[in-house]
Design brief:
Helix content is about 50%, strand content about 10%. By secondary structure, it is α/β, with parallel strands linked by helices. The protein has a five-stranded parallel beta sheet with strand order 3-6-9-2-10, sandwiched between helices. It has a five-stranded mixed beta sheet with strand order 14-15-18-19-20. A hairpin with a 4-residue loop joins strand 19 and strand 20.
Length: about 900
């Protein structure tokens, strides 16, 4: 009985006191560089001694600190000038910057850290020199209003940089450019850094700042663009100053950018990476295996005697060997044994789960999220003191604790809170009670269901869930027979409502598997369930992602439909009510996008349902849900073959009929007009009847009425621009996008570009960009897409083309004679000259002078060569 001879984690380890706080403060694991600088963050970050004591110096962080310190101390060849820290959510970017903050602000306290002393020893440096530091935290700075300090009002990052490095005098040199918010240029920045070295600049939450700066106009640009130029100039300046280092923190993906939509986030993310250029070294402060040390150092003040840890690991390894056929082979390797020693008191499976499965999830903040979750788990274990907690394993993530449950559920959907409560804390615990004995004492059914749920949380749906081996690894510990898991899984498959097994992988899903609830579905479904299912069917037949439209189905917020220069179909909810409510709802979307007036109104199309068939739709939806319940139930497999085929056939017909009825229900098509809203009235054609989505139906109707066009003629452009008037091409494009009643162009820029090119070629009009005019010729596509392009009347274009500037007139070349004097040892230039002249009609007179008699010896050979090529020649004696 190895479990009787080894200690439990709560007997051997000592968590930090803050783990037991009533409500664990998220700031313990989420730090703002601005708050650290202001001294208002938690003491774990503001106190340098506490910070370095609790910080596990990873290989990457040590390398980064050593390189930067080497450069700051003037060590030739040490460190890169520009460092870009890039990790996913909570990957240690800001935590890393705090280390540099303390090195600059508290060098004496920093050198008390053994890791820092080792770095100094490697650099052959006794003490850290006085380092100038400027912290620019994009989340803490107000891009709109700036900040008032020391009698100054600082408005920009360059103003902040100058003030933080040189105080008032430094700011005065940048005051003019700060006040008008235009970049000061690399020369001034280089001078500032030259006078401040050794100097380190820390830029955190840059994308937060750029999002805010984009809204601030600066002349013809905005503060974001000015800041982009400033950053480019700053990287150039830092690169030439020998004792200057700049660290910039960027997220690993656009999911972390605080923009309104993903497209805008991705654009800004790519913009920031482009601005910083190629002069950087990308660092990942925390690698996966090093996280063991990070977790131990951050959560425990003492994690036990190494001898006891090896004893525990030995017992666990013996357990895996004894039941080898039940566990993955990797658990019995020396490498895995070493991982268990390094990860103690956490089982490697728990850390791997958080980093490999949860880590890529856009809402899980990797190291930071893991710290908060594990702090809650540790508190629960130390309060409950379970008898077999030899390691902290995935099953110890006790979902009956509302704080732990909230951390897990927020990564999937709020609806999973009810699923966890019903399946894991309800039905799974009932299974433990019914099985009794060790099942009940060790809560094996609850633990197995918990692990299956934790493995269901994954950024990649195809990898969601766990097989039986993985569940055993996550759940089992010495003295428990692994065969018991098979018994538990059988019970869970039969009695849980949301657990499914696909390809031998167990996972939880949002919709019920209908075990044992078949009678509830047949006896009646709630109105809410029917409505929700109907909306899902609308999503299915909407055509989203499959047509030229950007499709938005029943948006809850009428202002949430993006204002984009592309055909946009909005499908109205089924339950709005009467036509007047439809029109009010449509009018609201047509006028506003977010807090702004909508610009691209002409690109909107609306599909509204016929309210009279709603009862019939709900009846058919109920039928489909009931049939699905029967087909998915465990009793379905026990039916006779004919009965199973009949259920399948009825379900197929009911689903097809429901979708066909939904398609025919959305038969009212609206679009904005000059007067307000107009309905597009068109009879259904055979093509529309075959449509498989609402979007296809709408497209067919608009095509039939000539409203939706892929291209337009140059004549139409001439009409829109009005005869004899010049018009910027961008304004012309805007007219198609924003003016209700114009045709809807599938690709507005492409259609207008091609019509413009055709019109210019034909001479219907010309196009002018700066001093360059194109008329009766094909203008390059990039010219047509220039923001400064103007369409001008043909008469003016023709006159402009006739005005040939004097500098372009070609002058008649003068007649020249070339005499070349060289020796027989330098004939290669003569050969190259002959290649240049071979395509010309010039006369060549080639003379050779010889005073040595060498030419006479080769006379016959030369004559034969020249005669063979028909060249006229004569000899003269000197």
């Amino acid at each position: 009985m190895p479990g009787k001879t080894i200690k439990r984690v709560w007997e051997l380890c000592e968590p930090h006191p803050d783990v037991f706080a009533r409500d664990i403060d998220p700031s313990l694991f989420a730090v703002s560089l601005y708050q650290v600088e202001q001294g208002i963050a938690d003491r774990d970050y503001t106190d340098p001694e506490r910070y370095f004591r609790k910080t596990f110096i990873t290989r990457s962080l040590s390398h980064l600190l050593e390189g930067a310190l080497g450069r700051l101390c003037g060590k030739s060849g040490r460190g890169a000038p520009i460092l870009r820290l890039e990790t996913p959510f909570g990957g240690g970017k800001t935590h890393t910057m705090v280390a540099f903050h303390h090195l600059a602000k508290h060098p004496e306290e920093a050198t008390e850290s053994e890791a820092i002393r080792q770095i100094l020893e490697n650099l052959n440096i006794r003490n850290i020199p006085k380092i100038s530091i400027a912290i620019l935290d994009g989340r803490g700075l107000d891009a709109k209003n700036g900040r008032e300090v020391d009698g100054l009002k600082i408005l920009t990052l360059w103003g902040e940089l100058a003030y933080r490095l040189k105080g008032k005098s430094g700011y005065e040199a940048f005051r003019a450019s700060d006040e008008v918010r235009t970049t000061p240029g690399s020369e001034k920045l280089t001078s500032l850094l030259q006078d401040s070295q050794p100097v380190i600049i820390l830029i955190d939450e840059l994308l937060d700042y750029l999002v805010k700066a984009k809204a601030i106009k600066v002349g013809g640009s905005n503060l974001m663009e000015q800041t982009g130029v400033f950053l480019q100039d700053l990287t150039a300046a830092v690169s030439v100053i020998p004792q200057a280092v700049m660290l910039v923190a960027l997220p690993a993906s656009s999911f972390e950018v605080p923009e309104a939509d993903q497209e805008a986030s991705e654009r800004l993310f790519q913009y920031a990476k482009k601005v910083l250029g190629r002069m950087e070294l990308i660092e990942t402060p925390v690698s996966q295996d090093e996280v063991f040390g990070v977790l131990r150092r951050r959560l425990f003040s003492n994690w036990g005697d190494e001898k006891e840890i090896k004893k525990i690991v030995s017992a666990i390894s013996d357990y895996y060997n004894a039941y080898a056929r039940f566990f993955p082979d990797r658990l019995r390797t020396p490498d895995y044994r070493e991982r268990m020693i390094k990860s103690y008191p956490f089982h490697p499976e728990l850390v791997d789960l958080l980093y490999e499965r949860w880590g890529p999830h856009p809402q899980f903040q990797r190291t930071r999220g893991a710290l908060r979750l594990l702090a809650l788990v540790i508190r629960r274990i130390w309060n409950q003191r379970p008898g077999s907690a030899f390691f902290i394993q995935p099953h110890h993530v006790d979902l009956s604790d509302r704080h732990i449950r909230a951390e897990a559920v927020k990564l999937v959907d709020s609806g999973f809170d009810a699923i966890v409560t019903g399946d894991i804390l309800g039905r799974a615990m009932e299974i433990d009670k019914s099985l009794g004995g060790e099942y009940r004492r060790e809560e094996l059914a609850k633990g197995t269901a918990t692990c299956a749920f934790l493995y269901s949380i994954s950024a990649a749906t195809r990898d969601a869930g766990a097989n039986e081996e993985e569940l055993r690894t996550a759940l089992l510990r010495p003295d428990i027979n692994p065969a018991q898991v098979s018994e538990v899984l059988g019970q869970l498959r039969e009695r849980l409502w949301f657990l499914v097994c696909r390809d031998k992988r167990y996972r939880f899903q949002a919709r019920p598997n209908l075990n044992k609830i078949i009678l509830d579905y047949e006896s009646g479904l709630s109105e809410e369930e029917v409505d929700k299912s109907l909306n899902s069917q609308i999503e299915i037949i909407s055509g989203k992602g499959k047509t030229i439209f950007s499709v938005y189905v029943a948006p809850v917020d009428t202002r949430a439909v993006p204002d984009r220069p592309e055909p946009t179909l909005v499908i109205l909810p089924l339950e709005l009510g009467e036509q007047k409510e439809d029109e009010k709802w449509i009018s609201e979307i047509s006028r506003y996008a977010g807090e702004s007036y909508r610009i691209n109104r002409n690109m909107l199309v609306f599909a509204a349902p016929d309210r009279g068939v709603l009862p019939q739709l709900k009846a058919r939806m109920r039928r489909v849900l009931a049939l699905e319940s029967i087909r998915r139930s465990s009793s379905f497999r026990e039916m006779e073959r004919d009965d199973r085929e009949q259920v399948e056939e009825h379900l197929k017909d009911a689903t097809t009929g429901l979708q066909a009825l939904l398609l025919s229900t959305y038969n009212h098509i609206y679009r904005p007009s000059i007067e307000g809203i107009e309905e597009v009235r068109s009879r259904l054609t055979q093509e529309q009847i075959k449509a498989k989505s609402i979007a296809e139906t709408v497209k067919a109707i608009l095509d039939k009425d000539g409203i939706l066009l892929e291209k337009i003629s140059p004549e139409y452009l001439s009409e829109v621009m009005r005869k004899g008037q010049e018009i910027p091409l961008e304004k012309l494009t805007s007219a198609f996008l924003s003016t209700p009643g114009q045709p809807i162009l599938v690709n507005p820029k492409e259609a207008i570009s091609q019509a413009t090119i055709e019109g210019v070629k034909r001479g219907d009009f010309g196009i002018q960009v700066g001093e360059k005019t194109y008329f009766r010729e094909e203008p390059p596509l990039q010219i047509v897409r220039e923001s400064q392009a103007i369409i001008i009347p043909g008469q003016k274009a023709e006159s402009l083309k006739k005005e040939i500037p004097l500098k372009e007139v070609e002058r008649e070349p003068k007649a020249l004679t070339l005499n070349v004097l060289t020796s027989s040892t330098m004939l290669y230039p003569i050969m190259k000259l002959s290649e240049i002249l071979k395509d010309t009609q010039v006369q060549v007179n080639f003379g050779i002078k010889d005073k040595t008699g060498a030419l006479a010896k080769k006379k016959s050979e030369i004559e034969k060569l020249l005669k063979d090529y028909g060249v006229t020649f004569e000899w003269k004696e000197e």
